[in-house]
User: Fold this.
Amino acid sequence: MTNVLELRGITKRFPGVLANDKIDITLREGKILALLGENGAGKTTLMNILYGLYKPDEGSIAVHGKEVEIHGPNDAIAQGIGMVHQHFMLVPVMTVTENVMLGIEPTKNGIFLDKEKVAGRIREISDQYGLDVDPNAYIKDLPVGIQQRVEIIKVLYRQADILILDEPTAVLTPQEVEGLFMIIDTLIKSGKSIIFITHKLKEVLAVADDITVLRLGRVVGSINPKEATTEKLAVMMVGRDVNLVVDKKPAKPTEPVLVVENLYVRDERQNQTVQGVSFEVRKGEVLGVAGVQGNGQTELVYALTGLLPLEDGTIRLLGEPIHRTTPRNILERGVAHIPEDRQRHGLILTFPIHDNMMLCTYYKNPFARGISLQEKTIFSNAEELVGQYDVRTPNIYVNAGTLSGGNQQKVIVAREFSRPIQLLIASQPTRGLDVGSIEYIHQQIIKKRDEGTGVLVVSSELDEILALSDRIAVMYKGQIMGIVDAQTATKEQLGLLMAGIHPSETAQA
Amino acid sequence: MTQETHIKTAFEKRKQQAYGITLLVTGLIIYLLFGLNTEAGLLTTFGLNLAGTNAIPIDDLIVPAQATVYLMSAIAAFVGAYQLARGVRSTGALLGIVAFTFVVAFLTWAAAGKSFNLTGMLTSSLVRATPIALAALCGVISERSAVINIGIEGIMLIAAQVAVVTATLSQNLYVGLILAILIGGLVAAFHAFLVIRFKVDQVVSGVAINIFGAGMTSFISSRFLQKATDALNNSGTFPIISVPGFSKIPVLGPVLFENNLIVYLTLLLVVVLHVMLFHTPWGLRTRAVGEHPKAADTLGINVYFVRYVNVILGGMITGLGGAYFTIGSVGRFDEIMTAGKGFIGLAAMIFGKWNPIGAFSSSLIFGFADSLQVKLQILRVPIPSEFLLMAPYIVTMIILTGVVGRAIPPAADGQHYEK
Assistant:
C-alpha cells in the first residue's frame, strides 16, 4: 500500500503565533485519515497550506511520492487535491451547475458557457456516488446537507482523488451525518483517499482508518482507532483530563418565567422564519432548543430579546407582556442574552474590556451620574468580574477583540450574570470554543439554573443540548416539532425531529 | 407546515392594502388635479410625426381631453378597488398602471387645446437616457464584481472635457471619442488601484474622484477654454445616422433608427453586456467574485484581477458617456455639464437590479422624466419651471425610496477582499 500524500515538517508562523510547528502527516491510499484537534490547534491552517491558500514557512508536500510545490488552489487541483470547506464555498444565488463549473468553464464556440455539458456531467457523478443532486437547483433553495454534496461534486468534477473534508458534520443533522458517512464509504470504494478534519471524538472512531491528533500547532501523536477510546482521544486533544459530562443535579422547576404563545416572526428579508411557536420556561430549569441551524432559532431569540418585531403572538415575562417594548426595557426586567454571534452582537471589539463589562447598565448608577461616566467604578467593576469569571487577559484596558474566543465569551457571561436576572437566553453559547472553556460556560449556566433562573439554551450541537437541558424543544422550519424530556430523549429521536419527522410517523410507516 | 400551505399573513395583507390604496389615491388625484381643471370640449393632439425625419407620415392622435382624463382616473380607481378586494401578486404591473394613468392624464391635461409631439418626446427621452444608461452600465459591471464606483460623475466630466478638446485640436471626432474612453478607463484604473491594492474605502475614493473631476474641469474651462473657444472648445458633434429602411417606420423609426453613433453604441452595449454577464465565463466569474469572492478564490480565480478588469471596463463605458455630453450632443464643454447624470445612473442601476437590461430600462424612465420637463416648459404649463426642472430628481427619489421594493445588491458589494 502506498502513501498518496505526505506532509513533512510543515511550519507556518503568523505574527505572534506558531500555527503549525513541524507537522508530519501521512495519508494512505484508499484510507480515511482523521485529523483531530480543538479549534485553534492548527488543522485548518494546515489544510489551507495543502490547498495552496497559505504558503508554508518550512516543510515539503509529496503527492504520490513525488515532491510538489503548491502555490495556489489551481496547483492543488492539478495534483488531484480537492477541499470541502467548513463554510461552504458556494454562491447562493447561482445554480448547482454554475457553482460547479466556476473556474473551469467549458464553452460553446469559445465564448458561451456550455451549461448543458456540465449539468450532464453532474448527473453522472451524482448517480455514480448516490448524491441525488439536481444540477439546475439554486444553492439558496437547497438544504445544508445537499449543499455539502454540491461541494463534493465540485471536487469530484475536478477529478480529485484526495479529498479534504473540513469539519463536514458541524452543520448536519444526525441523519445527514449517516448519509455523509455512506457517501464517504462509496468514495473510498471507488479509490479516493480522504482527510477528515473534526473535533468530534465519536465521529473519528466511527469512520477513521488512521487518527492523527493536533494540539497547539503540533502533532501530539497518531493512534489506531482500534486502540482508541473517546477518553483517550480527549486527553490527547486537550492535554489534560476533561470532564465530558456536565455535573448537574435534577432540576427543581417552579413557576413559569417565560411564556411564549403562537409566535410568528419575519427575518430581515421578510421571510416568515418563526411560524406559530409556543412554549414556556420555568424557574430553575433549562429548556434546550435543538435544531439544524437556520430553522428559525435565530429569529426566535431576536424576537424574545426585542431585536425583531413580532408579526403575531405574545411573549410574557413573569406574567407581563414584553413583546411591544424595547430591548432595553426587556433587559431591565431581568433578561440576560448571550448572543449567537458574540463578536457582532455580544461585544464591541474595539472597546476595552472595562467598557464591554457595563454595556447593559452604563447609563445607570453606579456607572453614570448625570452626564458623566464614573471611571473608578467602571474599572473596579471590571477588575472584580475579570477575577471572578477567570477571564485570561493582561489587564482590563485591552480591547475585547484581542481576547481569544473563550475569554470573549467569559466577558459576556460575566457582564450578563453580574446583574440580577430572571431569565437567561443563551444562543450557541459554546460555538467555536475549546473544551476547557466549554466546560466552564456549561458549569456557569447550570449554576444559574440552580439559583432559580429560567434558562433557554439554543444550540445546533446536539451533545450540548443533551448535556445542559432538562426539557428539549426541537425546531424545524420555524415550528416546534415537539418538546421532550431530556432524561428519556435519545439522539435518534431528536435527529428525526430535527429533520421534520415525528418518530410516531415512522413507526406507523 | 410547508411552503405550499402558505397562508396570507398580516404583512402581505398590509402590502396588498397599501397598493390598493395607492391606486385609489392616484385615481382621486388624477380626478382632482387634472379632471376638474380640464375644460369640457377641448381636444388634445398628440403629434406622431417629427419634422425632418424619414418616417412615413401618419395621422396624429387626437383625443377629447376631459374624457381621457376621466378614463384614466377611472382605470386607476377600478384597479385599486379590485386590488383591495382580491389582491394581485404582480406589484410591477400595479406600479405600471399607477405610472401610466398618471402620466397619460397629466399629458392630456397639460396639452389640452394644444398639440404635443409624442414622437419628439420619445426621441429625446432615448437621447437623454443615453448618458444615464452608460453610467448605469458602468455601475452594473463594476458592482457585479463588488467594487462601488461612485466617481462616475467625475469621470464623465473629465472624459467630456478631454473629448471635446482633443476632437477640436485634431479636427477629428473619433480621436476625441477614443481618448475619452481611454481617460475614463485610466481614472477608473486609479480608483481600482486605490480600493483594491490599498483598500481605501470605495465611497471615499469615489467622492474624491468627483471632487477632483468637478474642480479640475471647471478650472481648465474657466482658465483656458473660455478664452479660446474656437481653438479648444468647438468640436462639432457626431452626425445623425439614419438606418436605411428602418428609419421609415412611423414613430419607431425616428425614435430608434435616427440617432448618432454614441446612442447606437449604447444600445449595442446593453445587449452585449447582458450576454457577457450571464452567458460567458467572464460574466460567471464576475458574478461569483461579487457574491462570494472567497468561493471564487478557492477555485483558483484571481479575485483582484477580475475586479481590476471590471472597474476599468466600467470606466471606459463611463468615458463614452462623458463623450456624449460634448461631442455627442452640443459640441462644447460647459462647467458641471453632467448635472448629476452619473448619480442618476447609479439610481438606475439599483432600480434595474444590477442587470444591464434593467438598468437601461430604468434609465429610459429617467430620460423620459427629463425630456418631459423640457417639453412642458415649452407648453407653458402653469407649473413653475423650477419645479419642472426637479422632475428627474424627484423621480429618482421616489424610485429609490423603495416604491419597487428592496433591490438586493451583490452580496459582497463594497467590501474589500482579504486573502
